[in-house]
Design a protein that fits this description.
By secondary structure, the protein is of the alpha/beta class. About 35% of the residues lie in helices and about 25% in strands. The chain has a six-stranded mixed beta sheet, sandwiched between helices.
Length: about 120
């Protein structure tokens, strides 16, 4: 079962996670915990533009708690070259694997696949 951080309540991505069960948890640090040592942080480009410091703080809060660490980025804007460069740098420095999704359904499939 995928554990979903309470902070994600209301996130439209959740309706795209259909093939695995998920439940809210207020005890996890990442956005999604897909295994004992696997986690996902979720970020949209639009949100990153409004809060560029957010993802660095979230990665820092993870510490070294997980061995498989994925930063799932929803490409919800056409002009994403500069923000994506920033996100790529933060992901690299934070020892995160970067996955890009161009739709919420694609992002949902990534979560399902990482759980499998």
């Amino acid at each position: 079962m995928v554990q979903v951080n309470e902070l994600q309540r209301g996130n439209p991505l959740l309706s795209s996670i259909r093939n695995v069960r998920w439940t809210y948890s207020n005890t996890i640090i990442p956005d999604f915990e897909v295994g004992r040592s696997s986690c996902i942080l979720y970020l949209s480009i639009k949100y990153h533009r409004l809060h560029p410091e957010y993802i660095s703080q979230r990665i820092e809060a993870l510490g070294r708690s997980y061995t498989t660490r994925v930063l799932l980025v929803y490409m919800d804007t056409d002009d994403s070259k500069v923000p994506l460069r920033e996100i790529n740098r933060v992901a690299l420095l934070g020892d995160m694997t970067l996955l890009l999704a161009w739709s919420l359904d694609e992002a949902g499939r990534y979560v399902e696949t990482l759980k499998a």
